[in-house]
Every structure is written in C-alpha cells, then in structure tokens.
Amino acid sequence: MKKLIVNRYRCGYCGACVAVCKFNANELVETYLEIYEDKCTLCQACVRTCPMNALEVVE
Amino acid sequence: MTDYDVVVVGAGPAGSIAAKTAAEKGLDVLLIEKRQEIGVPVRCAEGVSREGLEKFVNPDSKWIASEIENAEIISPSNHKVVLSAENAGNEVGYVLERKIFDRYLARLASKAGADVLTKTSAVSFKRENGTVKLGIRSMGEFSEITAKIVIGADGVESRVAKWAGIDTTLKLNEIESCVQYLMTNIEFDDDTTYFWVGRKYAPGGYIWLFPKGKDAANVGIGVMPSLAEKSAKWYLDRFVEEHFPEGEIVEVVVGGVPVKGAIDTAVADNVMLAGDAARHTDPITGGGIINAMSAGHHAAIAAYEAIKAKDYSKETLKRYDEKWKSDFGESLVRNKKLQEKMMRLDDPTLDRLAKSLEGMPIEEMSVRRLAFELFKKHPRLLWDLREFIV
C-alpha cells in the first residue's frame, strides 16, 4: 500500500505543499503538516514542490 | 456567540492592514493568527520598495535591517548588470526585519480598535442567512463566531479560499519553491542586492542576496517545480558551497511563493482574499509585501462600503476586484508574461543579454526599466512583449 509521508525533521512548515494540492489532502496546522491519506491521490505535486525534499511516497 | 462585521484570517501584512483600515472605518473587527507568535516563522526575503512602504507606514529603524542603493544582476557566465537608485520606482529600497515589522503592523491594527487573537485558527466555514458562521479554535478551545465578511489573508496555504469556493490551487509552474539562509562570514556590499539568474543556478527562478545590516545577509533561492530536477535546498547548497564556502548559516527560512499572475477574482459571497492567499505576489520578483498591504487596504474599504449598504454578496464585493486590479493587477499580468518569456531563454542567451547592458548606467531598480533597456537593445527577441514594456 503506497502512501505519502512527511519527514518532520526536514519539513520547514512553509505551506508550499498545501498551495499545490488539488485534493485538500493536506493542511498546515500552525507548524504541523497534516496529511489526509483518504484524500491523497499520490499525484506527487507536493513532493516536487517541497523546498526541503521532506515529502516522499513509500510502499 | 460573538458577532463581528469583519473577521480577518491571518496577521501578515495583508491581514493587519485590512484589520487596521476596517477598524479605523469604525467596523467591529477581529484579526486572528494561527501561530502563537505573529511574524514567525518568517517566509520571506524581506525586500520592499521604499515608496510602497511609505504609503502605509513611517519607516522605523526598529524593523529596517538595510537600505539599498544598487541591484546587481549576475548572468551564468558572470556578466553583471547594475541598476542603481537614482530615480523613483525602485523595487527594493529597504530590507525589513519581518519578525518585528509584522508585529508592529498587528499592533497598529489593535490600536485602531481591532480585536486580535493569536494561536487561533479558522477551522470551519458555513454561510447562513447572508452571513458566515466561522468556527475558530483559539488556544485549543473551539467556538463559533458570526461575521458579515471574512477577509482571507491566510497566506500561500489559504484555507479561506477553498471554503469560499475560489480555486487558487497553484500548478507546478505557478509557484516558486524557496529556501533561504541568513548567513554570516560572507563578503557583500551592504547597500546592494544581488540576483544570480540562469538555469545553471536556479531553474525557473533565481538566487538572491539581500543584506541585513553589515554582517549578515539573506541568501536564498526560488526554483520552479515544473523545471527543477532537485529540491530548492539542493540548488542553494550547491551555490553556497561554491560562492560562500566560509559562510555560516544562522537561520533557515522556507517558503512557497505564488507566481500565478492575476487571478480572475478574489471575491465570493461574504469573502475577499488578500495577499499571498489571492496570489498577489509579483511573478518576476516574488515580492508580495506592498501588494499585500495595498490589497488589505482595498479589501477593508470594500468591506466598509458593503456593510454600509448591508449587502455582502459577491456582486457588491466585486468592487474590491476592480480596486486591486487597477492598482497592481496589470503589473501581475505583465510580469507573468515576462517571466514565461525569461524562462524560455537559455543560459547563453541570458549571458548575451547581460553582456549588452554590462557597464551601462541604469538609474532605476525595476523590472520594467530593465525590460525596457533590454527591449531597446534586442527588440526582436522581446517583440511579442512590447505592449507590456514600452
């Protein structure tokens, strides 16, 4: 089962990934990135956008 | 159950100016900020135009880190074009200390009579009987407030836009992925901003150095995800290793900068968007502070007029669209076109362009002036953009 994960040690909580998500599958709660797996389509727009390379899709 | 005329979501420059202006007009205003401290984490290179800033506030040494006289643009093979501030129209005249500046603006809003809540997020939104029921979570406590108008100044990751039904999702060629280091132990002129352009440095963006006083500078990068093969951080690290091997990194700043150009509309029933939430950032420079403050001001005036008329419909709020579009919408459109053009130029072409202006005195630090000078030298190359330049 593939899923999107965030490496919290790399994440700079900037919200760029939220701005490019068409599916409302993420949200920046103060400085905590929430990912809603049920909405995520694994399109990887956020993965490509993240300035810190903090997002990846894993098996 | 509290009632407000206007609830402003987000206490950045757009939100604070909106709240301040609306409160000065005598409206009941609430300004909420999801973070516990206004102004941090910073997501900004902190450059602003002098004239733009002075339209809203008196410059104060407490939050001005540097005053800028020159801008140096460096091409891939190291040709340098220098713009200097002899005339008006400069894009970067001050480098701010946003941590302090943003708090100052929020305090102006509270002084004007706006209520302010930090560590407070908007979590739900529903329209009811012509007004909005906005759910907020303040220091962990949920409550519902009624607002006639909600101004979404909630940044690049705007939730208000989504709730209101305004689609502002950015495509991968409509955002700059940015990282910036505050660096010490590096050499630079403290009255000069530097811009390194070309795919070699930053695919679809550029690298900048903005002085913050004499001893430190913001060194940052923006890259376009549709063109970049690696992360913004990777490109910046490579540059820093090459150019400032002795430099120390004392702060890290990360951000996504909208470079969409002008959106069709920033309004819906009961809602206006301002600043990054409305994609009001300049597509070439990435500068957004002055447009955000202007938008906040226009939105507050439109809110005042709508409340006076007791009509909060999209139709009435459309006045705000007209206001921001006539103020800076045209420059967003022009600079998006220019940016698309610039991105198609390969590094040898950029070198040729920079070489043709090398050593030439250009006494204005603005994209428009730079484009004009290039157009005079290379009319054929930029012919399709002439209506935006001349």
Can you tell me about this structure?
Chain A: It comes from Geoglobus acetivorans. Chain A: One of its GO terms (molecular function) is oxidoreductase activity. Chain A: InterPro entries: 4Fe4S_Fe-S-bd, 4Fe4S_Fe_S_CS. Chain A: Residues 2-30, 31-59 form the 4Fe-4S ferredoxin-type domain. Chain A: This is 4Fe-4S binding protein. Chain B: FAD binds at residues 14, 33, 44-45, 47, 98, 122, 276, 288-289. The complex is a heterodimer of chains A (59) and B (390). Chain A has 59 residues and is an alpha+beta fold. Chain A has one domain (3-58): Alpha-Beta Plaits, CATH 3.30.70. Chain A is 15% helix and 27% strand. Chain A is built from 2 helices and 4 strands, in the order E-H-E-E-H-E. Chain A has helices at residues 16-19, 45-49; strands at residues 3-6, 26-29, 32-35, 55-58. Chain A has a two-stranded antiparallel sheet. Chain A has a two-stranded antiparallel ribbon with strand order 2-3. In chain A, a hairpin with a 2-residue loop joins strand 2 and strand 3. The longest helix of chain A is centred in the C-terminal third of the chain and has 5 residues, at 45-49. The mean pLDDT of chain A is 97. With 390 residues, chain B is an alpha/beta fold. Chain B has a domain at 4-44 and 99-170 and 263-330: FAD/NAD(P)-binding domain, CATH 3.50.50. In chain B, 32% of the residues lie in helices and 28% in strands. Chain B has 10 helices and 18 strands. In chain B, strands 1, 2, 8, 9, 10, 11, 17 and 18 form an 8-stranded mixed β-sheet that branches. A 7-stranded mixed β-sheet of chain B has the order 6-5-13-14-15-12-16. In chain B, helix 1 runs parallel beside helix 3 (98-111), helix 1 runs parallel beside helix 6 (289-308) and helix 6 runs antiparallel to helix 7. The longest helix of chain B is centred in the C-terminal third of the chain and has 31 residues, at 314-344. The mean pLDDT of chain B is 95.
